Every structure is written in C-alpha cells, then in structure tokens.
C-alpha cells in the first residue's frame, strides 16, 4: 500500500468477528422465557397460590432478563433484522422502566459508549455513598430527564415516542390503582422492577470501577466488542489468548533481503512494486488477502520502517505492494528500480473477509483501495456473494487500480457495484458525453459499465446516510470494510452507528500517518 497507510489489524481484547443470523435465537428465547416466567409469577401472586415474597424474586429474574434483551436490541445484537431489534426492544422496555422508551434509551446508552465521561452515567457512579443505591432505584427517571434536555437535537418521532411513554405507562398504573388493585402492583411490578433496575445499574455502571484492568469478565468483553451478543462472551474469552499470540507474532518474522522485480506506475504519484521471492523463501512469504509486509531501508542515514498492504489478487503468485509518494520512506521507495534490494519482513495481519457474508460493502478513499482490492476479489470468488465498493478520489487520474476495479466489475457481471465519488468536479468521468466512447462489443459490456457510477463531490455524512436508507440499508449488508483517512473513517462510523449497524460487522483498516 502507500507509505501512509498501515493495513495490519489492530488487536483488541477480545478480538471476535461474527456474522449475526437474521434472528438471534438465544435472545428470542430469553425474551420468551422472561415473559413466561413473569406471567407465571403474576398468576401465582394474584391467585394467592404462594406468598407475595416468593413471587418477587421470580419477577426480579424475569425483569432482569428483559433488561438484557433491551441491551441486546440497543446494540442491534438480536439479529440482522432492524425491525426485529426495534420490536423486541419496545416490547421489553415497559418491564425495565416505568417512564422509558426504547429509542431514547438506546440513544443514551450508545452515547455512553461513545463518551465514557457522559454525565448520564456519572450521575449513577459519583456522589455520596448513601445516595447511590437510591439513585439506582430511579435511574430511569434521570435518563428521561437527561434525554429531554437533548431532545432539540433528536428526531421528532423519537421525541414524540419518549413523551408518549412518559404518559402511557404511568397512566396505566394510575388507572389500575384507581380500580382498587393498586396494592397488587407493588409485588407484581413496582418492587421487582425497581430492584432489577438498581441491580442492572450497579452491575453495568458502578461495578466496573472496582475491577482490575485486564480482568476477564462480561464488562471487559462488552467494552471491547459492544455489539457482541451475550451468548458469545465465552468465545470472546477464548479468543483472548489467540489475539495475544497474534499480537506477538505480528513482529516476530525476521527481515529478508528481496529484490525489486518490476515497477508499474499507477498514478502520477503512485507505483506498484513487484518483489521477487526466492524459491527457498516462498513458504515463509505465503500470504492471504488483507495481510501486509513491512519494508526497511536506510534513508539519509536513518533507518526507516513502513508497512504496506499486499495488493496481489487471489490466484496470483507475485508479491506486490502499492506505494504513494507522500512521505520520506515512500519518496525513497518510488525511486526504486528493478534489481534494487529491500529488507522485507514476511506477511502478517489478519484476513479482512469473514466467510459466509452475502453482501460486503467496502468504503475506500484514494490509496485505501490497495489493502481492500484483494479482499474484494476474494469475496467475489464466493458464489452468490455481492460487493459494493464506495470509492472516493480526487479525479480519475489519481485513481489507483482503476483498470483492476473495472475488470472485476466486468468479470463478475453485476456482483460488484462501484460508486465513484470524485471531489474534482471537472473530472472527465463525471461528464461521459465529453469523452470518447468505444462501441459496445456485447451485452456484457453494457451491463459492466452500468455497474460503475460516478458522483461529483465527496462522500459526506448526509450522502452516506442516504445510501444507508436505500440501497445499502443495514438489513441488506453483512460486512463493512473501511479504509480511509481517520477523519473520514470516524465520520462513516458515526453514520453507521446512527443507523444501528453492529460494530461486529465493521472492519476498519488503520490509516497510519508515517514518514
């Protein structure tokens, strides 16, 4: 890749990749079981079959289970279907809070993940020790007050639903109390719900303060992978050891001296180097799509290291990297000629493609295409897998691997859709009427050209949001791969979060500013 783009995977604890099913059966069973348990406990309490103090723990268990369901749905972990997460969350919410609405609670919870210092959480963990248990009992009231203070920046329908729930559930409780059954609400609903709410707040907000860094547990797994379903945490803990081993192996290979075989200009400022690997080193330099190599050279008397993505397509044996002239090392590397020698560390990094995905969306900007192009080609080799490439460049002249992208679109006939965004609105590709066209050779040519579309301007959050509301709706996409400058990646991640794309379905290739 370029001198400014590192494409190695950033190892996190725990490093777990998963593809959610349309419906997460364990979450659905938890909801059904909690509902059945709560119904049974209510029947026992109202018929007098057992003392009220026996049914309170049953209701407590049922409402705690409902709190887990709400939490799963808030992270879009109840399955890939957006409507299912919304429906389950709304159905479970009245068992968790007297005044809360699911969309507003989801917003507040995700904001706490984005900003751990959010004042909503601070209210439940900071204050006199004697006050904290009392605050936990009424934390949902604090949440709705905090939400209403931010309501001016929230969608009108979401605010309307929050206000409706503030009136609806308390109104129903008042009506029941007016009918003479008010005391029955205490053991059946109010008391166990308050206890469950306090327990969940203690567990999720206050308890992490007392845990040692690196301690294995739910909270550490959830912090590292918020969208990981609760039933996958044992797998997360098992992945810890392998993730640590991968981090150690990242720099374990020794540098080998390889010669430059060929060079190929990609753009006026970027070249592709082919490195000759001797037969005795071929097993050591065997690679997979999404991996990188580290190059080392002495530039102006200083030893420099830089990682580059391997841009070799599946089925090809040569080891190739793309380098853009944008730093000290890259300026040196782009002057290399066939026969020059380089110190190269063997391939490392994790594959970026999870088998089983049916629709993969790749967002790449400029040189960010280098590490993801092999991933795109690999995904297309899987029958019935589709890929949408959102590719941002200044102009066609600055577009790396333009011919390879077009070749893949034509080769796989409709399974690769490319959306080009060009920030230079004078770019000729944006005005096809001004460019010479060759005659169509066959129907495949017509279909292939229709698979590449060009749009003026960059991919701003609004335009990405419009795509997510239409052709790239989260329910239609299994995997997202981002490789762009940090500002663009962060902006895209915010938009994906607003559309409830599970974090487990997103892969971000690190864009590193180097020398």
Automatic annotation (TrEMBL):
Domain of life, per lineage: Bacteria
Keyword Oxidoreductase applies: yes
Catalytic class of the enzyme: oxidoreductase
Alphabetical list of PANTHER family matching this protein: 1,2-PHENYLACETYL-COA EPOXIDASE, SUBUNIT E (PTHR47354:SF8), NADH OXIDOREDUCTASE HCR (PTHR47354)
EC number(s) stated in the UniProt entry for this protein: 1.14.19.-
InterPro entries in alphabetical order: Cbr1-like_FAD-bd_dom (IPR008333), FA_desaturase_dom (IPR005804), FAD-bd_FR_type (IPR017927), FNR_nucleotide-bd (IPR039261), MRET (IPR050415), OxRdtase_FAD/NAD-bd (IPR001433), Riboflavin_synthase-like_b-brl (IPR017938)
Domain FAD-binding FR-type: from-to ranges: 253-354
Cofactor: FAD
Keywords in alphabetical order: 2Fe-2S, FAD, Flavoprotein, Iron, Iron-sulfur, Membrane, Metal-binding, Oxidoreductase, Transmembrane, Transmembrane helix
One Gene Ontology MF term: oxidoreductase activity
Transmembrane segments: 23-46, 52-70, 162-186
Record-given protein name: Fatty acid desaturase
């Amino acid at each position: 890749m370029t001198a400014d783009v590192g494409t190695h995977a950033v190892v996190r604890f725990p490093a777990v990749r998963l593809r959610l099913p349309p419906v997460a059966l364990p979450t659905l069973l938890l909801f059904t079981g909690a509902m059945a348990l709560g119904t049974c406990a209510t029947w026992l309490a109202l018929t007098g079959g057992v003392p009220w103090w026996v049914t309170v723990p049953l209701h407590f268990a049922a409402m705690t289970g409902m709190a887990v369901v709400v939490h799963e749905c808030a992270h879009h972990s109840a399955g890939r279907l957006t409507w299912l997460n919304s429906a389950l969350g709304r159905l479970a919410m009245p068992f968790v809070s007297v005044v809360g609405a699911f969309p507003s609670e989801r917003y507040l919870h995700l904001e706490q993940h984005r900003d751990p210092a959010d004042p909503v959480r601070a209210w439940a963990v900071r204050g006199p020790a004697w006050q904290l248990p009392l605050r936990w009992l009424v934390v949902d009231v604090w949440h709705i007050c905090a939400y209403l203070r931010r309501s001016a920046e929230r969608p009108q329908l979401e605010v309307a639903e929050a206000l409706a729930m503030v009136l609806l559930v308390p109104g129903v409780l008042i009506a029941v109390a007016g009918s003479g059954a008010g005391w029955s609400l205490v053991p059946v609903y109010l008391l166990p719900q308050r206890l469950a709410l306090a327990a969940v707040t203690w567990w999720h907000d206050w308890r992490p303060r007392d845990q040692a860094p690196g301690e294995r547990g739910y909270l550490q797994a959830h912090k590292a992978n918020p969208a990981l379903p609760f039933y996958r945490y044992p797998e997360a803990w098992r992945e810890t050891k392998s993730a640590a081993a991968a981090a150690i192996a990242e720099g374990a290979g020794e540098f080998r001296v390889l010669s430059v075989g060929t060079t190929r200009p990609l753009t006026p400022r970027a070249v592709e180097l082919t490195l000759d690997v001797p037969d005795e080193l071929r097993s050591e330099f065997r690679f997979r799509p999404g991996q990188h190599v580290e190059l080392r050279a002495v530039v102006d008397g200083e030893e420099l290291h830089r990682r580059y993505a391997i841009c070799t397509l599946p089925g090809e044996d040569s080891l190739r990297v793309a380098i853009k002239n944008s730093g000290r090392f890259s300026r040196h590397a782009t002057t290399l000629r066939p026969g020059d020698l380089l110190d190269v560390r063997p391939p490392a990094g994790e594959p970026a493609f999870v088998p089983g995905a049916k629709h993969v969306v790749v967002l790449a900007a400029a040189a960010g295409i280098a590490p993801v192009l092999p991933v795109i080609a690999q995904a297309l080799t899987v029958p019935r897998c589709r890929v949408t490439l959102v590719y941002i460049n200044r102009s066609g002249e600055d577009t790396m691997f333009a011919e390879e992208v077009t070749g893949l679109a034509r080769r796989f006939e409709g399974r690769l859709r490319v959306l080009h965004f060009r920030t230079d609105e004078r770019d000729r590709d944006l005005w096809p009427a001004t460019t010479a066209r060759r005659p169509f050779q066959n129907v495949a040519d017509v279909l292939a050209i229709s698979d590449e579309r060009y749009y003026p301007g960059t991919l701003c959050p609004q335009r990405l949001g419009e795509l997510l509301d239409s052709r790239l709706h989260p329910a239609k996409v299994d995997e997202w791969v981002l490789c762009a400058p940090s500002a663009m990646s962060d902006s895209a991640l915010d938009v994906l979060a607003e559309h409830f794309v599970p974090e487990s379905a997103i892969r971000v290739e690190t864009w590193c500013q180097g020398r």
